[in-house]
Amino acid sequence: MERPSKVHVVGRTPGLTGAALSLVLLAGGCDPTLRLAPASEGAGGANDPTLPNDPLPWVDDTGSMDTAPDTDVPVVPTEHFVVLGTGDGFTCGLTDRGRIDCWGRGDLGLTEDPEGTWSDLDAQGTWWCGVTAPAGELRCRGEDLGNRIEVPQGTFASVDVGAGGACALGLDGAVTCWAGLTLPDPGVPAASDVAVGDGFACLVGATAGTVSCFGREELTPPAGLTAVQVQAGSDHACARSAAGAITCWGEAAGGRTAPPAGAWVDMALADAVGCAVDGSGDVTCWGPGVGDRDPADSVGVDSLAIGADHGCGLQADGVVRCWGDDTRFQASTPLVGVQTFDLSHRGVGCAATKSGLQCFGGTASDPVHAVPALSGVTSLAAANRYACAVGADQAISCWGDDGSAQAGVPAGVDWSQIAVTEYGLCAVGVDGALRCWGDDFTGFTALDGPWTSLDGGFAHLVGLDGAGNLLCEGRDAGGSRCSPPPGEALVSVGAGTRVSCGVTDEDGVVCFGPDVPITNVPEDGTWSAVSAGKNHACGLRPDGSLTCWGLDDVGQASPPPGVYVDVDVDFDTSCAIRASDRALVCWGARAR
Description:
Strand content: 35-45%
Distance between the termini: 24 Å
Strand order of the largest sheet: 1-5-6-7-47
Helix content: under 10%
Structural class: mainly beta
């Protein structure tokens, strides 16, 4: 099993004071179709605490303005991360205001943000533990193997979890362990740092910095080794000296115990890979499992956390940067100030913020993540292999897999809106006409508009013109997915994986497609937009509340409470823009 690690930021922790600050320092040891999106960020954007709390302006794809009622929600001031923990498909961060935010896999309750104030956390595999502030109590969440969740009582400063147990340090450095890990008799010395592996733990003595281990005799460290930091994999461990040198011992297969020479400021271990960062922020990894967890270039961070298939670094300003596998959004840093976004129907998405574009999902090294430097994005669409956007210059820019969907963008057209399928692209010009190209739309002829609604599914696209006529085109078009129930006139429509959903002219919602796999469609209520996935859908109401229906096996139809300005869903995940800080919030198989 992979052994990830936590990280404590080096430097100031702005905003954290009193008992919470003391504990952190001790712990540190040394596709909706009517795209409702904010029209502007205002003077300072989502990071400006002076942003007015007036109802947010909304703009749809046609450029018409409306004011959403009941969105007078205070803007949340910007928070900075001070501690990171990475597990199997998820990442957790502790902010300078003592809040824990987790993103990635949506099962086992791993990414449900806990209430209260916290001073430390650590994550591994399928569980994480934290220390509350100012009480110093232990709490854990995730898969309850070996009585992991039954934590000891007491007052603690920090916690470390591993494959075979967990240990916490008291305010005086006393070591307490549980979940299958037993302290030796007559005990261990007070420690300044502790790391837990598979059935063993290693610690740095609080007095002389001597490294010792217990639990497995074969993992005894070199005699007389002193350090300021210790980390543990499943079957090996490493220690970092005051001068920055790293020494490892234990299972050596694949170079696990052969770290590079140098003066390192932080290190992190998983089962088959270790990484270290130097004073310039450059990251170097070693071991047989480096793969995508080795960043292609410097990530400019001060400290590290390495998960099962991804890595994250923490900058001095509290910004998180991750790399590696992102199939559960675990390598996607939290986004605020989101102006518009779109999810594909295979787990890839892109978002436009005031500072630029970011794509997430899949593998962080995929071409779709190599986003161009675009400003003023007005429309954005993502497929699994590529994404496209309309910038301030009204031109279409695409990136990712250079397939048929991106070839042959008509010349001499200013664009206002786009939608994509897996193998095709449709766009509306400022002249109101709709044009499509790519394998999914071979032989398509431009259609006059204006078009008020447009959305792409996996292989079919749906849209509405100004007269309410429904367009359904693409390789996967035709049949029931293009035929709403008789007598239902639509005012907006969204394409799911193989179904479609729409808002009717009577403000209701309908879903239609082969065997109508989306169940429990609400029969009443008023709606602003609807987005469909494979077996579930979500609708946005005029007051900004969300309701989802259909399959909910991984929580994709259970949105968190709040006020939102946009929603989009894919195969088994849903995302929405929160009104208060315009953060991208996701739930289901991939959460953030």
